[in-house]
Design brief:
The protein is mostly beta strands. The protein is built from one helix and six strands, in the order E-E-H-E-E-E-E.
Length: about 120
């Protein structure tokens, strides 16, 4: 398998970037610069996934920047920022499955790109 501009990474067990435990990973985690992204799927409702990420991120000391809340019935976008930490979680519900797309910044070293 060839990985273009991405490296598989181990995900943290808790805190910023930790995957929602009752879900299973459907796409390998990958790193691009200082950012890691991965995709999950679960049968849990959107509210449970949101509660998990809000709790984990609060423990990591990262503030909620934006939440689409109930603007859309089967979609939620959460953004957490406390420089240099960043986490974005996009959640959608389709056919009794909740899909979760996570992207987070892992550090702020000189090796990070300015993106």
């Amino acid at each position: 398998m060839i990985l273009l501009a991405a490296t598989l990474v181990a995900l943290p067990a808790s805190g910023l970037g930790a995957p929602y435990a009752p879900a299973h990973i459907v796409a390998a985690s990958e790193r691009n610069g200082c950012y890691v992204r991965y995709q999950l799927s679960t049968g849990a409702p959107i509210a449970s996934v949101v509660a998990f990420y809000r709790s984990e991120v609060a423990r990591a000391g990262v503030a909620l920047f934006d939440d689409t809340q109930a603007k859309f019935a089967d979609y939620r976008n959460l953004t957490f920022i406390a420089q240099p930490k960043f986490l974005n979680v996009v959640i959608d519900r389709q056919e009794r499955r909740t899909n979760v797309f996570v992207s987070y910044k892992i550090d702020n070293t000189s090796t990070c790109s300015a993106r």
